[in-house]
Amino acid sequence: MTHDEAATAVDPAGVGVIAQLAFGSMAAQTMRAALRLRVVELIGDKEMGTADVAARASAAPRPMGRLLRAMAGLGLLQERAAGTFAVTPVGALLDSGRPGSLAAFAHMFTEPAMIRAWEHLDDSVRSGDTAFDRVFGTDFFDHLKQHPELSAKFNAAMSQATRRTAAVLPGAVDFGRFTTVMDVGGGDGTLLSAVLREYPALTGVVYDTEEGLAQAPETLRGYGLTDRCSLVAGDFFRPVPEGAPGADLHMMKSIVHDWPDEQVVTILSHCRAALPPGGRVLIVEPVLPEIVDPGTAGLTYLSDLNMLVNVGGRERTRAEFEEVCGRAGLTVTSVTPLPGAEPFSAVEAAVAE
């Protein structure tokens, strides 16, 4: 085959995929600019012309028109007539005032603190080291601690990212077997609140750092759960503090994947030590298949790389969960996929015999 023949034999769909990937960061920054300019909130449920959007956003009309067209091309807006735009159902998710909003999530995952380390992904792949630490001179969670406003953004993003799981988990796992659930690293309490609302006989504990718990009182008040749920500040790398309410289920979502194996074993060992007889650990995380399935891979493998460059953790297969649990004296007893909250599963573990 000649060079010219090879060029004409290239699959156009493949070219489109590569182009889409190459422009991916530009699409993300388009969304970030739209968030910072509050474009979706300004348009709201109306149709609005470019000049009006620009005036309300204190922006230049012609560049705003270019941004609005790009947003329409990405499916966030629809151009109803020349220069007149309306928000699509997808775009509405960027309105921070709407139920089910993902605005905080989108803000956080386009935040420079989240994406700068990605520029050094190749270095992390070569060395296995976390790029974030080298770029910022500290680790990700200490960086959040030093920047309270960013920490609040992160907490809000994690709350929004947890909503789909919170809607599904109480129906997928029988929490009625337990009396008290401790959500380890439970943040603002979004997930635990969903469980407690579904199981009125349960009591709960949200266990996290002071920074992680900052928004939890508001969440619990909003759901009327302050009498059934306590907040305990602590460090899951240390034993559960004496005097903390005992729990026969230690639950953690999106915690294990933040850390390398040694630290995960430490966290799980502290959970195991605090469990009463018959207690369980419930890990809510994506569970990678043994072989990549392109049809269901979704964003999980990008999340895995995000763990590599930003925090030093990883996504894991069932075998890898079994390994870290085993090292902590726990035995995985079940893995329950969570339809509607893909790719998450509920990994339950008991104290090893």
UniProtKB/TrEMBL annotation:
Sequence ranges assigned to domain O-methyltransferase C-terminal in this UniProt record: 118-330
GO biological process, one term: methylation
All copies of domain O-methyltransferase dimerisation, residue ranges: 20-94
Pfam (any one): Dimerisation
Key words, A-Z: Methyltransferase, S-adenosyl-L-methionine, Transferase
InterPro entries cross-referenced by the UniProt entry: COMT-like, COMT_C, COMT_dimerisation, SAM-dependent_MTases_sf, WH-like_DNA-bd_sf, WH_DNA-bd_sf
Single GO MF descriptor: protein dimerization activity
SUPFAM superfamilies xrefs: S-adenosyl-L-methionine-dependent methyltransferases, Winged helix' DNA-binding domain
Catalytic residues as annotated in Swiss-Prot or TrEMBL: H257 (proton acceptor)
Secretion signal, residue range per the UniProt entry: none
PANTHER family found in the cross-reference section: O-METHYLTRANSFERASE CICE, PUTATIVE (AFU_ORTHOLOGUE AFUA_4G14580)-RELATED
Protein name (Swiss-Prot/TrEMBL): Putative O-demethylpuromycin-O-methyltransferase
Organism encoding this protein: Streptomyces aurantiacus JA 4570
